[in-house]
Amino acid sequence: MCLLRDQRTKQQTDVMDNFSENYQLLEKRFPSLAERLRCIDPDLVQLARTSDGGYAYLQKKPDGGEQDFVPLSDPHQPIRKAQEALQPYLRQLAETMQPAVVVGLYPGFILDMVYNCFLDLEKATRVFRRIYVIVDRLPNLVGWLKVQSRARYLEHPAIEFYWHEDIEQIVAKIREDEQRSHEIIPVSALPEVVLNRVIEPFARLYLERQEESQTLYHELCEYYAGLDDATLARLMRGEGSRPPRLLFVTHRASTVVQYTARALCEEMLPELGWQARIYSSERSCSAWHIRKVISEFRPDVVVMANHLRTEHGQSFPPDLCFVTWIQDTCPYINNREAARNWLEAVEERKRDFLIGYVDQLIPYGYPPDRLFYMPMLTAVKPFGEGTSRSQTEVDVVFASRCGSPTRERVLELLAEFRDVHPLPFDAAELQLIHDELWRFYRSGSTITGEDALLEFLNGIAPLRDKLASLSHEDRSYFLQRVFWRLNDIIYRQVVVEWLCEYAENHPGFRLELYGEGWERQPRFAKYACGELSFPDGVV
Question: How far is CA 262 from each of CA 134, 154, 337, rounded to the nearest angstrom?
Fold first, then answer.
């Protein structure tokens, strides 16, 4: 362990500058926590290098000598200790939308790892999950503020810092804002007995909500079991004593689905005499909140886009009519296990159906009598409606979230095939697929489906044997991910390349590209116009 001596070297000056700048940010958003630090002399908290390349915090003893320091965090291998503490929670962190509660800065690598995990997931979900940081030792907070700029944490609206005695403030916020999930992922390097004592207010709220959730569930089960098929059919035909009711459950991660929900629930269904409501979850969608919304509205049918009932455990009462609207290719739906689990859950009742682009589901065992083909449905309004033509005089407007460099998608797939769904493809092979797809599309050819993609990949000699060695499930997963995560973006960007070439050869031709990522590509940057704003209620 190497102590960074408190001499006014440039390094030490930088450390104190870090503290000053970070303290100002802390004071701006979390003034009560910053006020507590006024009783701590920051010069008494020192930083030390550790053997694993990390750092530790040391506190100088009162009236101690030059080297008389007490460790405040692991002085040997804090990075390894943080990795070990996170290991039991990796699946929850990666696969749910629950917020994380990071307890203690010992010295803060757990917070770094959770932040980076959520940042990676934000690329796919477009939502950064909430992080509550619980400070239990003020000298450790001083050390954390001294290491480097902490602006990305202290300024992020989804990251909040609290003193451990003030956790009830978080609980109060969760009670006031039902979009804040009471289901948390607590992570810490502290001993379990200490961690449990700190998060005890969360545990009380969780048990309270679980009891309320079970009560709601039993009431809803009784209500929907009492609606026989004939009564439900009359209600849906508009022949009951009240209008039929539909609840569309959606999430802010998909703008397209939000528009679909609005078109259906605010324009189309009301004209047909239905009462329709949208439940849009910002982050985590807890069973308690779903049941509370259902209990208040009592819908006759629930619609979700690209999600099955079985993905949500027993959140929905079994006799509630549930429609899954397939709008995309979803590997978590397009597999035999998902089909088998869904059928086992719904085969006794004819109240679960799948609509939309359902032809793709048949090979996996979804029964044809539950599938109803329907193309995408949305309301169409002219671009710039309500403005004069001179204000919208553009030859081509292209709005897409597919503007990021395609090399980034290669890296994302590489990480997915390594960490999420292990598949035997290395970086060189994925880069080869990337390059061949670009060459193919630039030649004017196209790939219109996963079967065509498989035929194309089999034509690449180094890949043929490896594809043949995969199980049916793994090959299907691989094709779905490559088709939608890489092929999909390349074919769009090739067309935009052609538009750029046309614009450059035809003065006066106006091309505007909207969406994230175009500005980061030299070929497209001069046509990039930023991200479009959405109407109220769409994020």
Answer: 39, 35, 32
